[in-house]
Here is the input.
Amino acid sequence: MAQTIPLSWYLAISAVLFAMGALGVLIRRNPLIIFMSVELMLNAANLAFVAFARFFGVLTGQIFVFFVMTVSAAEVAVGLALIVIIFRNKHSIDVDLMNSLKG
Amino acid sequence: MESSGLFSLVPLIVILPIAGLLINIIFGGRMNEKDIGAVASAASGLAFVVAALLGFALWTGSGEAVVVPFADWIHIGALNVAWNFRVDTLSVLMMLVVSGVGTLIHIYAIGYMHEDVRFKNDIGRYRRFFVFMNLFIAMMMILVGGDSYLMLFVGWEGVGLCSYLLIGFWYEMDTLGRPSFANSNAGRKAFIVNRIGDFGFLIAGFTMFWWFKDLSFAGVFTQAAHIASIAPGVILFITLFLLVGVAGKSAQLPLYVWLPDAMAGPTPVSALIHAATMVTAGVYLVARSAPLYTLVPQAQATVALVGGITALFAATIAVGQYDIKKVLAYSTISQLGFMVAAVGMGAFAAGMFHLVTHAFFKALLFLSAGSVILGLERGHHHLAHHGGHGNGSPKSPDFGHLPNKSPNLTHLPTSDSELRRLESDDSSHHEEVFDPGDMRNMGDLRKQMPVTFWLYLIGALALAGIFPLAGFWSKDEILADAFQKFPTVYWLLTVAAFLTAFYMGRQVWMVFFGKPRHAAAAHAEESPKVITIPLMVLAALAILGGSLNLPGVHSLTLWLEHTIAGVEAGEFNFLVAGLSTALALTAIALSWVLYGRKPLAEGQIDPLKRLLGPVFTVFERKYWVDEVYWAVFVNRYVDISHFLADVIDGRFWHDFVHEKVIAGTYNWLSRTVLDLHVDQQFIDAIANGLGELTKRISSGLRRLQNGFVRSYALAVLFGVVIIVGYLLLK
Here is the structure.
């Protein structure tokens, strides 16, 4: 039953998820939403890893997913801490307001 | 072979004076006066010793010429001119005269120039004087000791240079000590007139080189007969152009004009250079070139006539001169005329004999005249410092009004005529300017300066040709030879001899007899021994010098026979001798009648002027030869050079070509074309355009950096897409 869904479908979903995540990063102004979009991109990558692992019967992809999840968790922790600090200074978390590097 | 060893000493006659002058140049700053003079005199004296040794070697040897090689010089193709010395009887005779009389004059000059130091307190000048004197001796030795016409010419030019340096020795003043260009002008005149003579010499030298392919004496003389047979005009050409050189150096017509002006130099210079040695170089040249001259009788006749006419001409001028040294200068020109006439006629021995005796008594006369001048200076000095009963107010000593700083020489007269004009309207002067050389200021000096008087008298009698002094023998030999060979010249010379005795008598009466015509003469003092002792030596030579070539014995003629072929011993002609003595005595008696019997009083006009009237004025004004030369030659040359300088060089080259054409074009190019159009419009446009471009690019690119994180993230995304796409599609 699991073999009847072709690999390409899984990859397509992964791609769509990745694209939506990228779009979310680019369009949304709220950093929390941006982080969520980043998670979405990471999970799209995870999906691709697992799909390939399942399809080729190799365990490597599935192990890699663990790494990715760990990294994303750490990264979100740091990111949320940054947002808290930024909020303390600017009293707003609109990323468009953080343009001090404007040249 | 001891004598051949002595011959090799000959380079010393040049090296010793040069060593003397080098010592004085290098160490002279630390030496005192006496030592400087001693070094110079010793150099000259040692050169005399060497010359004497050479003479001894010739005398005890065969007497034939010896060529002593010294150094290689020019070796171009077929021409080989070396720096060789020629020791033969003629050159050794000249060497002895030059160094002998020269040494005596050096010693005299120690005393004479000391006065200069005493009054002007300038020992640097004293040193310079002796350096130049030694240089002169060295150059003269090169002239007489050389073995080729080229080496002779080196010495010829060298003595001309020294003459210039020494005439203009007191270069910032005139004879009376006033700031002026007069002395330096006199030096310049001497050099330029000599140059004209040198031009003649050079043309002769070039012709000699062209035809003979050789310039050494031996080479030229051996080929002379051959060249004369194939092209006789060449020898005539050469000898006539050599005569031009002789006329310049030995002050004959028409190039004698520098010698009277040369009296601006110190008296020792006048004695050495312009009486005894340099001016005799021309006579030496003709004697040396005897093999050439004897081949062309026309040239010989020309030389003899030039000499004879000059002798008479100069003697007439000497009659009308008032300056003691000018009389002697014209006398020198006249006596040189005698010598040139003698060697021109072929009477080489007589000419050289007269050269030697003339050196003795003319040097004696000049140096004694210097002593007289010094005596008058001292008298004047006395008056200025110790008395008020002289003419004029007490003022500084007149040996030269040398101011403490150098005079302003920009507004000074630049020609003889200007100077005379300024001298005549001396209204700006409230000081009287005293001329110690003017015979009208002298008188009765035999009481004040007895030693000088007797010595001067000996010199004057020798010059007049009174038996048995030296001048009688030498002058008579010339007259006897002229009587035989060239009667025209004989009469010219006889009249000149008459005038010689006359003007010397005039001079002696005016200077030493009568009453003093100026207070300075009344207070004149005798000169110190360092001045009178050399004079005594010269006087002894003037008295005994005749013994060099007594008729019958003919020592000098025999001596010269070794060198000059065909020099015959003349017979003693009693008629000629008697006539000349009678004429001389008559002339002296005439001078006594005019100047001795009723001595000239102060301010009185010369009795001869009243007698001869305008003729005397012609003599006094030297036939206006200088004025004619200025008007015809010199001023035209000055005009040409003004034209070339102001019009051609100034207005055309400078103002037009350089300023307008070259500088103007360049400036126009650079300002208008290049600056305005090219630089400002084109290059600036490029530069500014680059800047604009950069600004626009950067303002364009600046918009990328808007500080928004999202757009940066978009950029990252684009980059990733591109890279992955490239990798996938590769």
